[in-house]
Write a structure and sequence with these properties.
The protein has 351 residues and is of the alpha/beta class. The protein folds into two domains: 106 residues, 3-Layer(aba) Sandwich (Rossmann fold); 144 residues, Rossmann fold (3-Layer(aba) Sandwich), CATH 3.40.50.2000. Helices cover 44% and strands 13% of the residues. The protein is built from 14 helices and twelve strands. Strands 9-8-7-10-11-12 form a six-stranded parallel β-sheet, sandwiched between helices. The protein has a four-stranded parallel β-sheet with strand order 3-4-5-6. The protein is elongated. This is Glycosyltransferase involved in cell wall biosynthesis.
Length: 351
Amino acid sequence: MVVGKWQESYFKHSFQMEDMKLSVVVVDIHNDAFARNLWYLCELPRLANAVAADIIHLSFPVPIRRATLNRPVVVSLHDLYPYDEPDNFGFPKVYFNRVFLQQCLGEVDLVTCVSETTLSRLNTRFPAVAKKKGVVVYNCVNIKSSRHSYSVITDRPFFLMVAQHRANKNITMALRVFGELLKRERIDRRTLLLLLGNHGPETTTIKSVIEREALGDSVKLIDGVSDEELIWLYKSCDILLAPSFMEGFGLPIVEGLLCGSRVVCSDIPTFREVGGEACYYFDLYSDKGSSGLATAICDALTKPKRKAEDLERFSLEEIARNLMTVYFGLQENSIEETNRGETVALHPAGS
């Protein structure tokens, strides 16, 4: 497992990495896009040779040269945001991300899409890649802890939204609807909306909406919590909100369902795929999208939490089995190709 120097403490703190079968390689490079991409192009082949890797699995698309790696390469594809959500990157970064995505998809041997929806988007944009290389391996969702934690939010009911400050998360709509529900007293006036997520391109807009709607006392922005506190928040919130326009998977929805959250979300293909009948959906694209969200929230608050089904497909054990099937298949293909190459070398045409 290769991590950057700046990631070392995070991984050691967040994951149990003492297993003798796991070897962590820390790479001391600058934490910037140019340095990281150059490392993949120039240094990854050297490292792969040094550790005698059988297979390389990239956790997201990066520029590589397959000919220099000499072993099967897999990439996890979470979404096609460089095309579907260009505002997440801004100009001109979005064009570099598109080039890197295309280059990586062309070079790797297999693309593991984190959902059927992502595979469908891949098929729409790059049909040849989807047909030849695309498979679905869901994200592993393993939210649990042996330690108990309690949040600082103990005296007020609250809604929870777990999302980076990006346009596709549709946070501003959630803020406007939440403010309207408070004004019309359709929810408890003490209710707090907790926005949990890293700052990003939409942070300035989010703060301006909070100020314009006079929600300063009713909205709280947090950019990080422990796993224990996150579990508590999922279990304790009145509503988990997810009004996104576009998603590749929908991790907070699965985490929330695993923890027993009452989920209200937009009716988009990804959320239907991972949430099934356990969520309260609203039509994001109707003429009354905002009122649809408000109605879904009020409806959900009056009903018991729904029991989620088929969540074991996101379990650590299930994803491990799926990945091992992928890896063994690639190894077998690699061996067959090597044997065919040796046969051609031993018996050249015309001999």
